[in-house]
Amino acid sequence: MNAYARHDYDTRSIILWFLLSVLVVIALSGCAAPGPKVPTIVKVPVPVECNIEQVPVLEKPQATSNMGLFDLAKVALAQLRTVEAENERLRAANANPCPAPK
User: How confident is the model at residue 5 (pLDDT cuts 50, 70, 90)?
Assistant: First the structure.
């Protein structure tokens, strides 16, 4: 008996050991715990009824011919504040995400 030929396996036993090894590897890899599932976030647009409040137009104060200088200054300041308020309301209306009525 040769020292190098100590293990005298035939081809059939080598194939069986190989198949058994592959079967064990497959069985153990199937037992591995799956990783944590990542939640799926789905964003679905939901139609919402848009109620836009119609705001009446502000009346601008008018100056008359028989007013004094102090009254004319008050009217001019009131007109300026009216214009600023209208501009603010228009900016707020433009920032509203609701579409215009059809």
Answer: low
Residue 49 has pLDDT above 60, yes or no: yes
The letter for the amino acid at 82 is T
Backbone angles phi, psi at 37, to 5 degrees: -80, 135
**CB crowding 51-76: b at 16 or more within 10 Å, else e:** eeeeeeeeeeeeeeeeeeeeeeeebe
Q: Judge whether 82 and 61 are in contact, CB under 8 Å.
A: yes
Q: In sequence order, what are the residues at sequence separation of 6 or more whose Cβ sits closer than 8 angstroms to the Cβ of residue 50?
A: 98, 99
Note if the pTM is more than 0.70. Answer: no
